[in-house]
Design goal:
Elements (H helix, E strand, L loop, with lengths): L2 H12 L1 H9 L18 E2 L1 E2 L19 E3 L5 E2 L12 E9 L3 E10 L22 E7 L19 E7 L4 E2 L15 E5 L20 E8 L12 E10 L8 E4 L15 E4 L9
Parallel strand pairs: 1-14, 2-5
Antiparallel strand pairs: 3-5, 4-13, 5-6, 6-11, 7-8, 7-12, 8-9, 10-11, 12-13, 12-14
This protein binds calcium ion (4 copies).
The site of one calcium ion has 7 residues, from loops.
Amino acid sequence: MPITRSIRARRRAHGHFAATTVLSLGLVAGPPVETGAHDTNPVQSRFVQRAPILDGDLSEWPDSTFIEVIPSTGTFDAESDSTADPTDLSFRFSVANDDDYLYVAVQVIDDVMVIDNNVDAGDIEASAWMDDAVEIFLDGDHSHAPDGRDAGGVEYRTGGEFAIVANGAVTSSYSGFPRTHGDLRYWSAAASYASTPAPAYAAPWDSAGAGFCIEARINLDHAPAARRPGARIGFTVSAHDDDDGGERDAALYWRGRSPHCWQNESAWGDVVLAPAPDSSD
Ligand SMILES: [Ca+2]
Ligand SMILES: [Ca+2]
Ligand SMILES: [Ca+2]
Ligand SMILES: [Ca+2]
């Protein structure tokens, strides 16, 4: 097993411990962190008067608002392999907000659907990174912290990771809000792939080439940066691909610094939240 896979597995199994271990071993590569630098090309969120229906059907999301992420434009996390083929793994996403929530829609293109590790679509502590899944990351205080999983849990208080498997299984165990899925005060999500016994649950897997969609809603009460005029929050989103069962094959991020894109907030992008149209701010 490659060492990066081993680190990933330990991180997932032991939370803060593994992230701290990675740092102490000096394995985090890349240039110095530009703490505080905002994204020069942020995503502009769109204000919605009517909240999207969280059902994995993206028909209420305007096509023009989606941002494409393909292998040549995104960042692969070097914990796993990569691909040059956008039909193997690519995605597009859109963000919207109202006064209370951030909404995220993602459409993933994937040639082989595999859900062998998360067969329970109702799981709220899923091992999402092991299957075809989406992960959404929030830097809710917009601190650009180099370690979003610091041992003190400082960054977890205002964000973290919200992960959704193609069948709707989720986890927020790597956020400040574990086991809160479905609670209006925290977050909810839905995904479009069918429950077991659809073809993605057993070899030879689902090669129909359909991919999947997710929709998520995250309460902005826990993101203090969202409550300022011209509010920006740190944000990234990734698609995770398993095409042969077992471990993940690849993880493609909109913005991130490899390896450990999930950890380093400083390389995430920005979302500029839209004020209500009648706001006097
Ligand atoms: Ca919908
Ligand atoms: Ca694939
Ligand atoms: Ca796949
Ligand atoms: Ca798997």
